[in-house]
Structures are given as structure tokens and as C-alpha cells.
Amino acid sequence: MAILVLGGAGYIGSHTVYELIGSGADVVVADNLETGHREAVHPQARFYQGDIRSRDFLDRLFQQEAIDAVIHFAANSLVGESMMNPLKYYDNNLCGTKVLLEAMVAHNVRKIVFSSTAATYGEPVNIPILETDPAHPTNTYGETKLAMERMFHWVGKAHGLRYVSLRYFNACGAHKSGKIGEMHQPETHLIPIILQVPLGKRKSVSIYGEDYDTRDGTCVRDYIHVTDLAQAHILAVEYLNRGGESDIFNLGNGVGFTVKEVIECARKVTGHPIPAISAPRRAGDPAQLVASSEKAKNILGWNPQYDDLETIIASAWNFHRKR
Ligand code: UFG
């Protein structure tokens, strides 16, 4: 039986496919290639181009392949964009997941691991954030991911489907081979934007807000290496295979860095002065997001390997320089 990776040509999806194939799994990838890259799909995975909002596409896929579990990355994930175009997020993230769940129930596929996000919490009440903390998203992206989690909950109750929702904090870094990494078009994420300066693609990096209630006034985020995130998906599938109950897990390092600290670290890694300029706050940004991942460590047996920001940025730098 194969594992179906939806959105397996995207950033976190493609890294997960590499880890799955490395672990000996049989992998099928589906992606509409709207933001994903065909060349990022591992050559040993069977690839189908199509959209999860198409029931016909999903029916053909489930008929053609013997799928045991689904890992679902096929969603839009930009905080800023979600505030400007909320309906795009309701359409792809929520409506897409509705069609997917209908197809899974119809084809008797009952296990799913799902990309959720720290953005479900909104402004946290505690740092580090626990899975039991209140979830009040401050942006449309987080709102749609929270609604997707609730959809899994109710569909699970009605149809015996089990899910693991993985709430990622800030995914970053690149595969150790340098073959795959983060490449969005246009790029909006902090670390790849910073690295565009030493690559000569931009003159400076803008700091979105320096008046937050944090140690240097800039937003604090918990940066977690994409390969560590990928490993968590394999552990989540194993957990469901062992009969584990539906559950939600944070995935982060438990250490927060400000935007200014990330820029400083990138200066050290690249040896480039990387000029930074002050810019207004970006809509929807909470001041601080730092995870407690104790639950994933205790229950899934997750053991992140890349806990050092310099190593993480160096892996991203290695990928971008090779390109
Ligand atoms: N930032 C800048 N300048 C930039 C880009 C970003 O100052 O040019 C700041 C942002 O305002 C934010 C921080 O850098 O404070 C990180 O921004 P990213 O866009 O890299 O990431 P986000 O924190 O907005 O969002 C990411 C994922 C979400 C996830 C969230 C959880 O995109 O899917 O992390 O922390 F929900």
C-alpha cells in the first residue's frame, strides 16, 4: 500500500517525500503545480498533476493506486496574502479539504496527516504555546486551517476516519543534499528573503514592525528545520498505523528569535552586511509564536535534529547558492 502526499511538490511536501522514500515507503504524489515545482518531486515517487478540488481527479487517483494513508499539504499558506484575498483561502483550503474528505470516505481511506499551523493560535496567551491553549486566529490563513482541523474532527466521528494535525511553527532550511529547498514565487518568508540580499536579488530586507512588545521590538518566531518537520510526518503515519487516536501536535524548537536576530545570524552565515530597513507592521502578524513540542516528543517520539538557527540558515544558504 502507498502513502499519498497531496502537495508533494511544495516546500514541506517535497522534503517529506524525500524522507518517506528514504524510509522505504511507496509514495504517490499529487500536486496542481500552482505553487509546487515538478522538479522537486523525488524521482522514485509516482506523480499525478491535479487539483484536490476536483472530485474526478481524486476518484481516478484512488481507483488507480492502493492508498493506505494521506498526508495533506495541498493548501495556500501565506499570512499576508490571506488577509488580502481571504476567499482564495476558503476555496482552496476549506473547499479543497471537503472534496478530499468526501473522496477518502468514498474510497475507504481512513488515515490522514495534515499540515496545520501556529497561526491557528492567534495572539498566544502563554509562551511556549501548548496544544490546549485557546485558538483565536488573527488571520484568514490560520482561520481556514483551524476550520480544517474541526472538519477532520467531525468527519472522523461520523466516518471512523483518524487524523493527526501537525501545527508547524516557522518552517525553514533545506535538504542536506541541496537538491530541494524553499522557493516560493513571489517569496514572502523571512529567511529566503534575507538570503536574496547576498544573492544579489534585492538590495535590503524590510523589517515589518519594530514596535512590538518583544525584546528588540520585532516579531519573535520559532524556526524549525524542514527535515525535522518531514520526520514528524513519518512518525505521525506510524502512530496512526499503531491505532493512535486523532490528535493535534505542535512542531517547533521551543526557542524564539526576533526578526533582527535572524538577520544578524544570516549576516554571520553569509559574511554579507545584509542592509535592513524599517517598514510598517504586516497585517495579521502576532508578536510572538513559540512552541512547546513536548507532546510530539512524548507521544510521537519526535526528536528534532536541527536545533541551531545558524545550522538551519546555513542549509538554506547552501541550497540557494547551488541554484
Ligand atoms: N518579516 C519581515 N520582513 C520580511 C518578511 C517577514 O520582517 O520581508 C517578518 C514577519 O513580519 C514575521 C516574521 O518575519 O514577523 C516571519 O515571517 P514569515 O513570513 O517568514 O512567516 P510567518 O510567521 O508570517 O508565517 C509562517 C508560515 C505560516 C505559519 C507561521 C507560524 O508562513 O504558515 O509561520 O509561525 F503559520
From TrEMBL:
EC number: 5.1.3.2
Any one Gene Ontology molecular-function term assigned to this protein's record: UDP-glucose 4-epimerase activity
UniProt enzyme class: isomerase
Stretches assigned to the NAD-dependent epimerase/dehydratase domain: 3-252
Gene3D superfamilies according to UniProt: NAD(P)-binding Rossmann-like Domain, UDP-galactose 4-epimerase, domain 1
Pathway: Carbohydrate metabolism; galactose metabolism
Pfam families: Epimerase
Catalytic function, reaction form: UDP-alpha-D-glucose = UDP-alpha-D-galactose
Requisite cofactors: NAD(+)
Subunit and partners: Homodimer.
Protein name listed in UniProt: UDP-glucose 4-epimerase
Species this chain originates from: Neglectibacter timonensis
